[in-house]
Amino acid sequence: GPGGVALLGAAPGAPSCPHGPALLFVKTSRAGEQGRRFYACSACRDRKDCSFFQWEDEKVSETRLAAREEYNRSRQPSFTHRQNVERLKNFVLLPLSQRKFCQDCQRLLLPAEWQEHSGHQFQCDISTAQLKTPSQLLYPLENKKTNAQYLFADRSCQFLLDLIIALGFRRVLSVGTPRLHEMIQSKASQDKDFSIRSLLLDIDFRYSQFYTEDEFCHYNMFNHYFFGGEAARETCQQFLNQDKSERVIMVADPPFGGLVEALASSFRKLMAMWKETEKEGDNNQEMPMFWIFPYFFESRILQFFPSFSMMDYQVDYDNHALYKHGKTGRRQSPVRIFTNITPRMIVLPIEEGYRFCTICQRYVSSGNQHCEICNSCTSKDGRRWKHCALCNKCVKPSWFHCDKCNCCALQDHSCERTDVGCFICGKAGHKRSACPSLSLA
Ligand code: SAH
Ligand code: ZN
Ligand code: ZN
Ligand code: ZN
Ligand code: ZN
After folding, report:
1. What whole-number distance in Å separates Cα of residue 58 and Cα of residue 53?
2. DSSP labels for 277-294?
3. DSSP string, 148-198
4. Which of 90, 184, 179, 143 is nearest to 108 (CA)?
5. CA distance 54 to 56
6. What sequence ranges are listed for the domain CCHC-type (predicted)?
């Protein structure tokens, strides 16, 4: 069989790149053969974005170590978070006419800096409202492999917030959800009675220009690394445990590029930072969470979090070519909410066609029919699925049972088999690029 690269995970004593401790991977040339292990950047899957690479058994000289440390330092942002907070204080004192944002550098400018940025594109008259909605001011990072930012459509963001409120949460740990964070923070600043607070953890340091150290931590969710060190970790720890009577939820919307096990391991560590009150009982309780991710990762997520279930709600995005509402009717988004909260508590909007299945005790898409044989509402993509007696499960409406493959597939599939499991769904029979989960057809 063909070889590949697999993640082994975080390793004690791992070397660091500018994005914190590297992760250990194994490269196999042929299935079954003992692979060679190496460290690579946790955050960037493209070597162009971070070229860090080291064989596990490689001897690294003192000189090279020193050079690496120097390099890592040089790659840190030119202003610290603290400095950015000071800069914002000065920025808001300026009259509107002097409040400029450099679009080329993605930075708020103080008058003394205008000169250095001459020739750059400015956005002027930055209002207080704009400072409160940085996700609209900053352009979404678009690097597909490393840091594609898909921002929630307003409707989905509002839905998430309403749900969080209805479930009685008072604090939200926003992991890679700048738009949810911003909706919460700006409501809190406008309305005295709105008592929900959010802490944003994100790798996008541009946000440090708009939030204090109590509102934003520069964080890498693939290796649970706080760029701000112990102080930042402490901020997060305190946020999670502040007032034990207030309920906290973690909401994460990570990049979809794989590495589910790395994400799961970081989320576990964040959950461990949240400690339940030393109340009687309930000691084994898991920190409530929404993990927002495509439905075809369901089996991978459940493998790491068996207490989770997938909700039918389709999360929509503003700037995703595939997953946003088209002008001409609705495109189906494959992105769902995975949660450890009891499914029946997650009330989905009736006006968008979701309904409650009394047998499954959860809200489902309008097209999701309860299958008598599976005894479950089986559709994953919102369309009505059909039961295959030979596979003994429900399958996509466009699939047919193939006797050669002994399973259901698209009519025009090629009956070739590969031995290794698919990277995305984990099933054998196809490679990642041909994963049936990826097509909505
Ligand atoms: N839908 C969300 C944005 C999700 S896009 C919203 O509208 O709020 C993914 C987010 O994860 C981005 O904000 C991106 O900056 C962040 N991100 C990407 N890689 C990350 C990493 N390694 N660690 C932490 N955050 C990361
Ligand atoms: Zn049902
Ligand atoms: Zn069925
Ligand atoms: Zn079948
Ligand atoms: Zn076949």
Report:
1. 10
2. -S-SS-TTPPPPEEEEEE
3. ---PBPHHHHHHHHHHHHHTT--EEEEES-HHHHHHHHHHHHH-TT---EE
4. 90
5. 6
6. 422-437
Using H for helix, E for strand and C for coil, what is the string for 202-220? Answer: ECCHHHHHCCCCCCEEEEE
Nearest Cα neighbor of 182 from 156, 165, 214, 207 is: 207
Distance 408 CA to ligand 5 centre (A): 8
Q: What is the mean pLDDT of residues 215-232?
A: 97
Q: Which regions of 253-350 does DSSP assign to beta strands (E)?
A: 289-294, 309-310, 335-339
Dist. CA 156 → ligand 3 center (Å): 30
Q: What angle do CA 83, 202, 435 make, to 5 degrees?
A: 155
177 lines ligand 1 (CB under 6 A): yes
Burial of 250 (0-12, 13-18, 19+ CB in 10 A): buried
> Is the separation of the CB atoms in 196 and 165 below 8 Å?
yes
Ligand 1 proximity of 338 Cβ (cutoff 6 Å): no
Neighbouring residues of the ion ligand 5, judged by CB less than 5 Å: 402, 404-405, 415
- Both tokens of 206, joined, read 């541009």
Which residues, in sequence order, are CB contacts of 302 under 8 Å at separation 6+? 308
CATH of 154-366, one of 3.40.50, 1.20.1070, 3.30.60, 3.40.228: 3.40.50
What's the pLDDT tens digit per position in 236-288? 999 999 887 789 999 999 998 768 999 999 999 999 999 755 545 556 789 99
Q: SS3 of 342, please?
A: coil
Please tell me the pTM assigned to this model: 0.90
With a 6 Å cutoff on the Cβ, whether 298 touches ligand 1 is: no
- Phi, psi at 224, each rounded to 5°: 55, 50
Ligand 2 centre from 353 Cα, in Å?
15
